[in-house]
Amino acid sequence: MREFLRNLSMGFAVGAAGGLVYALALWALGRYGVSYRLGVDIAPHLSHPYLYQRIVWGGICGWLLLLPLRRAWFSRGLLLSLVPAGALLLVLLPMRGYGPGALALGTLTPLVVWLACAAGGVFASALLRAQGR
Predict the structure, then answer these.
(1) Per-residue DSSP letter, 1
(2) Domain assignment of residue 1, yes or no
(3) DSSP secondary structure of 61-106
(4) In 3D, which of 46, 47, 50, 61 has the Cα closest to residue 16?
(5) Which region holds residue 106: left if phi is over 0, alpha if psi is between -120 and 50, else beta?
(6) Main-chain phi, psi angles of 118, to 5 degrees
(7) CA-CA distance, 67 to 48, in Å (whole number)?
(8) Whole-number Å distance between alpha carbons of 26 and 97
(9) Which of 16, 109, 128, 131 has the fewest CB atoms within 10 Å, i.e. is most exposed?
(10) How far is Cα 31 from Cα 121, in angstroms, rounded to an integer?
(11) For the segment 81-104, what is each residue's pLDDT rounded down to a tens digit?
(12) Where exactly are the transmembrane stretches of this chain (predicted)?
């Protein structure tokens, strides 16, 4: 039981760090005009609520890293980043009125969202690997 709780804690912690990286990556893509150049209208403002929400959801998504995938840490991070990106593009953003894939924000919105999720996923996977898991 102790090992199980340790794994849950580690998964949440590395996921929360990955969520922070995701939030900062999405903010940086908007702040430095990358999303604008790609024709995507995503430029979040850096604020406590913005960071908090993504850190907590990143921690929850970090539990995906505990699945028994025997892949290299980089490919594991990229592969598992498809889950939160898919949830954003197919459920959360359409519920906010941006349509399927959030294409109302721009044609390349799925790419921008996945790039930010991939940055967080790879970072979280690297942190987990640094812990020997």
Answers:
(1) -
(2) no
(3) HHGGGGS---S-HHHHHHHHTHHHHHHIIIIIHHHTTS-GGGGGG-
(4) 61
(5) left
(6) -65, -40
(7) 30
(8) 20
(9) 131
(10) 21
(11) 999 999 999 999 999 999 999 999
(12) 12-30, 50-67, 79-99, 111-130
DSSP 45: -
Domain that holds residue 117: 12-130
Is 104 within a domain? yes
Specify if 2 maps to a domain.
Answer: no
Mark residue 23 as left, alpha or beta (left: phi above 0; alpha: psi -120 to 50; beta: remaining). Answer: alpha
Q: Is residue 23 included in any domain, yes or no?
A: yes
Per-residue model confidence as pLDDT tens digits over 21-59: 999 999 999 999 999 999 999 999 999 999 999 999 999
Alpha-carbon distance values, 65 to 17, 34, 76, 98, 118 (Å): 13, 29, 8, 29, 13
How many Cα neighbours within 13 Å face the side chain of 18?
A: 33
